[in-house]
Specification:
The complex is a heterodimer of chains A (about 350) and B (about 325). Chain A is α/β, with parallel strands linked by helices and about 350 residues long. Chain A has helices at about 65-70, 95-105, 115-120, 125-135, 140-155, 160-165, 175-185, 205-220, 230-235, 255-260, 265-270; strands at about 20-30, 35-50, 50-55, 80-85, 90, 110, 190-195, 225, 240-245, 250-255, 320-325, 325-330. In chain A, the strands form two sheets. In chain A, strands 6-7-8-3-9-10-12-11 form an eight-stranded mixed β-sheet, with helices on both faces. A four-stranded antiparallel β-sheet of chain A has the order 2-1-4-5, with helices on one face. In chain A, helix 8 (about 205-220) links the parallel strand 7 (about 190-195) and strand 8. In chain A, helix 4 packs across helix 5 (about 140-155), helix 5 packs across helix 7 (about 175-185) and helix 7 (about 175-185) packs parallel to helix 8. The two termini of chain A are about 35 Å apart. In chain B, helix 4 (about 110-125) crosses helix 5 (about 130-140), helix 4 (about 110-125) runs parallel beside helix 7 (about 160-170) and helix 5 (about 130-140) crosses helix 7. The radius of gyration of chain B is 21 Å and the shape is globular. The model of chain B is unreliable at about 1-10 and about 330-333 (pLDDT under 50). The chains are: A alpha/beta (about 350), B alpha/beta (about 325). At the A-B interface, helix 8, helix 9, helix 10 and helix 11 of A face helix 8, helix 9, helix 10 and helix 11 of B.
């Protein structure tokens, strides 16, 4: 099935481990009557080839904004982006819109949460995939259609030739999301950004879609930046994870080691607040308080007001520091012994 | 109907419930097809199912927002559908429902306090001052301050709105509350707060919950007993702990295995069952067992014989609808 997608046979032979995307000190601010407010602040992380990196955090932590700022899908006015986004030798943050168009959809694919709003209701599924292909490759209509059908086949759609002639409204939610994945991967991007791709789906369909994504990522060598609020999905599909809180990365490292022993109290808090079988009917631990609004961001550690481990020095600004193979934004990370996830 | 057979501890009895939508001009959809269960006073009864399983339709019928096509719903032995409109209005106070979307449930033009007072106005309880006092008391109980009570829905967070909805349902002192996906729209730490609150309120007000959700973890955490719905039918029912650890129906097993676990790989003991295919169309339900088109265990007879809804001995209180429930399914987790 994998060769049906291959436009260039070299695409699958990516060297594992090489850095593909590196965001450095990425900040995004919005302007209103009170002036500029930074909503993302100094976000730095890397995605390596063949890697699946999960970004987790509660709503309003800047997960989706990080994805949008990589693709420069931010509003044209009243919005500023600073920092660097290194991708395949380019700095995406310095590219103009015309160049960015060659990256979007071609080198970086994207899938969003709600497939129905991402698909155009008045064109057939096949036409929409053909449009993507012909934007980036010199293909005839017939060639592109053939590839579109092959792409639908590769995402496990039965009778792809007839589905290609259908409109999005005649497809189920799971099928639409498969179409979105086919469309995102048809140009064989180096990186796929998937923002809550399964949130609107039922759990049995979610399992199918996640399986498909992980499998396609592995076969085509596409790295995936996977944004979700579901820690279970990250645990089961990702190799590395970033925890974001209030517009910053607070923890970054291999999934297995973070789950076993989180170093940031916020990551630990997220893990603890999940209901689990052993403690049925018992009280759940929650994180007191709320994510501060961007205008009332604490000067020091942004999590300190909600953190049970906060001390007076925590109210000083806190940098993201390397701790072994991980990065943590907490001055007490090495002295705290936070509990990890339990089955 | 005869009201004598009322057992005091059975607060809700649902029997052979059938709800059919449409049919006069288009094709009829049998959203609920022969569902039956009883809920005891003070219990939390969970209903799990995917979208389109009919779980919300059952929930709406329990609180008389929908009339059954066939079968019956009894509230503490009484048939609410046999009541006159005026009697039903009064009766309804004891059987409340809370919905998923806290935004849609609150009127954007009313303050939180007014929204919580509204049910009291409709029920004709007390005078304005008494109603206000009562509403504030209830808001305080769900941890919303008097200052927040004066705000409009858009001025408070999603979690706070859901608290306001809970206060709104509680202010009439109901006996039973149907909670339909009440925590689905909330972040995990807020969800945890909310589940704790539900547990506290149950203890303080001697409430009975019918807790409907697609989230297994949530249902398993809060419920005493859990029913699993697929395509308008119950496929399994049992105590939450045994159902979650040793499911009898292949669909329950698949649901459990599909739920991603946020634990390191070495703690993940269970085997993944990925169901093939899509949920069938409600306009053309599969013959025989409705799950056969996606079931990993299905045999030829499943396409013809509809499995009987039966108690599975020797485990008392465990009901299942599968021809092969006697085989031990692999334990999950």
């Amino acid at each position: 099935m994998s060769d049906t997608l291959a436009l260039s046979p070299a695409a699958a032979a990516a060297t594992p481990g090489e850095i593909l995307l590196a965001a450095r000190n990425l900040s995004v601010g919005f302007k209103d009557e009170d002036g500029w407010t930074d909503v993302l602040k100094d976000v730095s992380f890397t995605v390596r080839r063949n890697e699946i990196v999960g970004i987790v955090g509660e709503s309003g932590c800047g997960k989706s904004l990080t994805a949008l700022s990589i693709l420069n899908l931010l509003p044209l006015r009243g919005c500023r982006r600073t920092g660097e986004i290194r991708f395949e030798g380019m700095n995406l943050a310095a590219l103009g819109e015309a160049e960015m168009r060659k990256v979007r959809g071609r080198r970086i694919g994207m899938i969003f949460q709600e497939p129905m709003s991402a698909l155009d209701p008045v064109f057939t599924v096949g036409d929409q995939i053909v449009e993507t292909l012909r934007t980036h490759f010199p293909l005839t209509q017939a060639q592109a259609w053939e590839r579109a059908v092959a792409a639908l086949d590769s995402v496990g759609i039965a009778s792809p030739a007839s589905v290609a002639t259908m409109y999005p409204m005649s497809l189920s939610g799971g099928m639409r999301q498969r179409v979105m994945i086919a469309m995102a991967l048809v140009c064989e991007p180096q990186l796929l950004i998937a923002d809550e791709p399964t949130t609107a789906l039922d759990v049995t369909i979610q399992a199918q879609i996640m399986d498909l994504l992980v499998d396609l990522g592995r076969r085509t060598g596409t790295a995936i930046l996977f944004i979700t609020h579901n820690l279970g999905l990250v645990a089961e599909s990702c190799t590395r994870m970033l925890t974001m809180y209030a517009g910053q990365v607070v923890e970054d490292g291999p999934v297995e080691s973070i789950l076993a022993r989180p170093l940031h109290p916020y990551t630990a808090g997220l893990l603890r607040s999940l209901p689990n079988q052993q403690a049925r009917k018992s009280r759940l631990a929650s994180i007191p308080g709320r994510v501060p609004s961007p205008k009332e961001m604490p000067v020091g550690c942004r999590f300190a007001p909600r953190c049970t481990y906060a001390e007076p020095p925590c109210h000083e600004p806190q940098a993201l520091e390397a701790v072994g193979e991980r990065h943590v934004r907490c001055r007490r990370s090495t002295e705290l012994h936070l509990a990890g996830a339990v089955a | 109907m005869s009201d004598v057979a009322a057992s005091p501890e059975k607060i809700l009895e649902v029997e052979d419930l059938e709800i059919v939508f449409g049919g006069r001009h288009g094709k009829a959809v049998r959203a609920v097809d022969g569902v039956g269960f009883t809920v005891r006073q003070g219990e939390t009864f969970g209903i799990i199912g995917e979208s389109g399983s009919g779980k919300s339709t059952v929930g709406r019928c329990i609180v008389c927002l929908l009339a059954p096509t066939a079968g019956s719903v009894r509230h503490a032995g009484q048939d609410p559908f046999a009541l006159s409109a005026a009697e039903l209005r009064k009766h309804r106070r004891s059987f409340q429902i809370i919905f998923q979307d806290p935004n849609a449930a609150l009127d954007p033009r009313m303050t939180i306090l007014d929204s919580v007072c509204e049910p009291l106005v409709v029920a004709g309880v007390g005078n304005a001052a008494e109603r206000r006092r009562k509403a504030l008391q209830m808001l305080d109980r769900v941890a919303l301050s008097a200052e927040l009570a004066e705000r409009y829905p858009h001025e408070i967070s999603g979690g706070q709105k859901q608290r306001a909805n809970i206060a709104r349902a509680l202010v009439l002192e109901p006996k039973l509350i149907v909670c339909d996906e009440v925590v689905a729209a909330l972040d995990v730490s807020i969800q945890a707060d909310m589940l704790n609150l539900f547990a506290d309120l149950q203890r303080d007000f001697d409430l009975t919950y019918v807790f409907i959700s697609h989230d297994l973890r949530v249902v398993a955490h809060i419920s005493d007993r859990v029913a699993v719905m697929y395509f308008g039918k119950l496929v399994e029912l049992g105590p939450a702990d045994v159902l979650m650890t040793a499911p009898l129906h292949p669909y329950t097993a698949a649901l459990l295995s599909a739920e991603p676990e946020p634990v390191p790989a070495h703690l993940r003991a269970r085997q993944r069952i990925i169901l093939q295919g899509e949920v069938p169309s409600p306009l053309a339900p599969p013959s025989g067992c409705r799950f056969h088109s996606r079931c990993p265990r299905a045999e030829a007879r499943c396409t013809v014989d509809e499995p009987e809804w039966r108690e599975r001995a020797p485990a008392p209180g465990r009901m299942v609808a599968c021809h092969f429930a006697e085989e031990r399914l692999p334990p999950v987790q």
